[in-house]
């Protein structure tokens, strides 16, 4: 996984996209390395929560323009299918993924951040979908996820103008949850990840699944799905432990993981 580094701190897996000299631009190899890294953290039961970030001054400055420049229509579609499937795998992973957006999140970089479950940004982060200025559309889910996250009017404005916005504006439109000084970004991301790790992991995963599923369906189907998930959790040791701790006025809880 040459372009994606993996490390673990406690139950938190940290994935760092590391192609610094090209501001972590996504070429086919980076996408394949990311795919493999997702498989690895997904299979590691000791990792509960994942943080995704970029090396150096960029999160991801987009898909690789040098590689795309010579694409035929067929190549472009294949590249879109490749990236799209990797981003869907990230979004559909059972464990939560936090994007710690340290710098540029442009084009495919903004799309990658949007495939994560929670987005935190450094004050230095910049966001945008510059594709129409390059003669292409967003191709890794931008036309689909941005309107779901910020609403159709803002998504249209951002995608059709190709403008770049700063972290504070990204927070104002709901694209990121929080903005921190650069040096506080990773400590805050770890604090958030560890707060999630402290809870019952089956319940965490079922909650993520319900939210993700519910965003793609009608409320009746989503509610039925939620009832199933609630039932699954009611049959677990973690439910006995969590509720037992409350009733016994015990602060310490011992979840199964
Ligand atoms: N692709 C390839 N190389 C890049 C990219 C990129 N997206 N971004 C930066 N680089 C490279 C630069 O070419 C430069 O390389 P070199 O040193 O060899 O010249 C190096 O990174 C450093 O970049 P700059 O010198 O430009 O650094 P600056 O600080 O001056 O500028 C910017 C930083 C503003 C981020 C600038 O690099 C920039 O505008 N980059 C392009 C941003 C962009 O347009 N991104 C969107 C790309 S399109 C996209 O992501 C589509 C996604 C979906 C595709 C699906 C297809 C089906």
Please render the helix and strand layout as text.
Elements: E1 4-9, E2 12-17, H1 28-43, E3 49-54, E4 58-60, H2 65-68, H3 73-92, E5 97-101, E6 104-106, H4 108-114, E7 118-122, E8 126-128, H5 142-150, H6 152-161, E9 164-166, H7 167-172, E10 178-180, H8 185-197, H9 201-214, H10 219-234, H11 237-247
Parallel strand pairs: 2-3, 3-5, 4-6, 5-7, 6-8, 7-10
Antiparallel strand pairs: 1-2, 8-9
Helix pairs in contact: 1-3, 4-5, 5-6, 9-10
Octanoyl-coenzyme A is lined by residues 22-23, 25, 61-66, 76, 79-80, 83, 104, 106-108, 130-131, 134, 138-140.
* Major sheet attributes: 6 strands, mixed
Q: What is the tally of beta strands?
A: 10
* Average residue pLDDT: 97
Basic shape:
globular
Q: Structural class per helix/strand content?
A: alpha/beta
Count of discrete alpha- or pi-helical segments spanning 4 or more residues: 11
Bound molecules: octanoyl-coenzyme A
What does this structure look like?
- With 257 residues, the chain is of the alpha/beta class.
- 49% of the residues lie in helices and 17% in strands.
- It has eleven helices and ten strands.
- It has helices spanning 28-43, 65-68, 73-92, 108-114, 142-150, 152-161, 167-172, 185-197, 201-214, 219-234, 237-247; strands at residues 4-9, 12-17, 49-54, 58-60, 97-101, 104-106, 118-122, 126-128, 164-166, 178-180.
- The chain has a six-stranded mixed sheet, sandwiched between helices. Strands 4-6-8-9 form a four-stranded mixed sheet.
- Strand 1 (4-9) and strand 2 form a beta hairpin.
- 39% of the residues are buried.
- Residues 22-23, 25, 61-66, 76, 79-80, 83, 104, 106-108, 130-131, 134, 138-140 line the site of octanoyl-coenzyme A.
């Amino acid at each position: 996984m040459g372009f994606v580094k993996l490390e673990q701190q406690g139950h938190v897996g940290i994935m760092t996209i590391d192609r610094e000299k090209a501001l972590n631009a996504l070429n086919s190899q980076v996408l394949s390395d990311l795919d493999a890294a997702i498989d690895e953290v997904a299979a590691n039961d000791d990792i509960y929560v994942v943080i995704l970030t970029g090396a150096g001054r960029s999160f991801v400055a987009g898909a690789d323009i040098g590689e795309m420049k010579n694409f035929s229509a067929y190549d472009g579609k294949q590249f879109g299918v490749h990236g799209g499937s990797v981003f869907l795998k990230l979004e559909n992973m059972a464990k939560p993924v936090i994007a710690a957006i340290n710098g540029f999140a442009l084009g495919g970089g903004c799309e990658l951040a949007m495939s994560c479950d929670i987005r935190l940004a450094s004050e230095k982060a910049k966001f945008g979908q510059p594709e129409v200025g390059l003669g292409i559309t967003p191709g890794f889910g931008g036309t689909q996820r941005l309107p779901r996250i910020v609403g159709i009017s803002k998504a249209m404005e951002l995608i059709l103008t190709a403008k770049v916005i700063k972290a504070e504006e990204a927070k104002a439109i709901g694209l990121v949850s929080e903005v921190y000084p650069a040096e506080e970004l990773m400590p805050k991301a770890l604090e958030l990840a560890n707060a999630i790790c402290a809870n019952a992991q089956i319940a965490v995963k079922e909650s993520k699944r319900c939210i993700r599923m519910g965003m793609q369906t009608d409320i009746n189907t989503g509610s039925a799905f939620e009832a199933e998930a609630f039932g699954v959790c009611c049959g677990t040791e973690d439910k006995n432990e969590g509720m037992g701790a409350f009733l016994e006025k015990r602060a310490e809880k011992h979840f199964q993981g």
